Every structure is written in C-alpha cells, then in structure tokens.
C-alpha cells in the first residue's frame, strides 16, 4: 500500500499564496517607480526643428513648334470609262466534227551536229613540219616587251594536224608570256606538215612542238 504524504510537507498548498504576494509586490514596485522616477518613463521626446523658408519661382512653359502636316498621298489613278462601244464578236461554233480528216503534223526537223574529227595521240608515223623545226624558228618574232625584259626559254605548242598536213588548231601547253605565246602559235599555224600515217593511211594526229626563244641568236 502506497504511503500518503503529510499535509505539512505538501508544497502545493502554499503556491497560491506565494503567487498573490509576488503580484502585489510587483504592482507596488511599479507604482513607486513611476511616482519617484518620472524622467525614466518611456515617453517620447519632442525635438524642435527650425523651419526653412523657400521661394516659389514661376516656370515658363516651353512652346512646342507645330510641325508641318505630312504631304498628302498621291491620288490613286482610276481608269476613266471609255465611250467606245464594244462591237459584237461572232464566236465560231465549238462543236467537234468527228468525221473531219485531220492532217498529221510534219515530222520535227533534226539538226545535224557535225562531229569533231578525232585526233590520234600516237601513230606509226608522226607528222613532221616541212623544213623541220628550223623552218618554224625562222617564223618566230621576238616582241619588244620580251627583249626589254630579257625573257628566254622554251614554249611547247600542241598542234592538231589533219590528213592534209594543215594545222587546224593549236594551243599552248607551256608558255612564257610577254607576247611570245602568240608569236609561237602564229608560227606553228603557218607551217605545213607531212601528215601522220597509221598502216600507210594519213590520219589526224596531235603533236607537241617545242619552240626555243633565245636572245643570243
């Protein structure tokens, strides 16, 4: 069986009395503090500030310049009605005659394209210039620009020789410039060749011809 506490040892009996005494003491302390120490109360301090005077000036309002109005848009041209009266147009009949005989359209014209002749690169007998390379060198003309610049060297010309030994076309494989390329082409085109042959028959052949340009000769 649990033991009971003695009434004299129970502290809860004095809680209410102690609380009341503490509240009364706190109120007495607050009354004494506000009565004897009013300067320490939480009142707000009012500070005096000197008033500044200022003058109000009238501000002149700026005038906005009136901009000129934009130019008027050009009027849209309107076609005037024509006084001419349209004549009546007779429309032919649109009915299809099934029994009508229609001629066949003519055949289209076929244009014949001439094929370029074929030139061989290597044949049994290559074309050779009549008079040799010396004859071509005699037709060479040095230009004044090349003489002043002292240009020397070798130009390679690719000549297209037909079955009659005539040069039909010539191009520069390696040139020197200064007008010497044109002089070499003119000399090769003015030269006749012995036509190249394949199996005893003359054929079209392209041949490379070296031309030497030298100022010593």
Give your account of this protein's structure.
The chain has 217 residues and is of the alpha+beta class. The protein has a domain at 128-213: TonB (TolA/TonB C-terminal domain, 2-Layer Sandwich). Helix content is 21%, strand content 17%. It has 4 helices and 7 strands. It has a 3-stranded antiparallel beta sheet, with helices on one face. A two-stranded antiparallel ribbon has the order 1-4. A hairpin with a 2-residue loop joins strand 5 and strand 6 (201-203). The longest helix is centred in the first third of the chain and has 22 residues, at 15-36. The radius of gyration is 63 Å and the shape is elongated. The protein starts with 14 loop residues before the first helix and ends with a strand. 12% of the residues are buried. The mean pLDDT is 77.
């Amino acid at each position: 069986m649990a033991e009971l506490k003695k009434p004299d040892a129970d502290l809860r009996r004095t809680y209410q009395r102690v609380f009341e005494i503490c509240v009364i003491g706190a109120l007495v302390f607050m009354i004494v503090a506000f009565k004897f120490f009013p300067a320490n109360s939480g009142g707000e301090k009012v500070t005096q500030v000197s008033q500044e005077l200022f003058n109000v000036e009238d501000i002149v309002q700026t005038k906005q310049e009136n901009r000129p109005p934009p130019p008027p848009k050009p009027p849209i041209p309107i076609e005037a009605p024509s006084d001419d009266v349209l004549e009546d147009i007779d429309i032919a009949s649109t009915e299809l005659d099934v029994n009508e005989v229609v001629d066949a359209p003519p055949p289209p014209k076929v244009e014949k394209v001439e094929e370029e002749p074929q030139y061989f690169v290597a044949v049994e007998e290559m074309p050779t210039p009549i008079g040799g390379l010396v004859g071509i060198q005699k037709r060479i003309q040095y230009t004044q620009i090349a003489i002043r610049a002292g240009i020397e060297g070798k130009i390679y010309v690719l000549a297209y020789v037909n079955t009659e030994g005539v040069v039909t076309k010539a191009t520069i494989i390696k040139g020197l410039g200064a007008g010497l390329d044109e002089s070499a082409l003119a000399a090769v085109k003015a030269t006749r060749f012995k036509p190249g042959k394949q199996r005893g028959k003359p054929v079209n052949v392209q041949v490379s011809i070296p031309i030497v340009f030298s100022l010593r000769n």
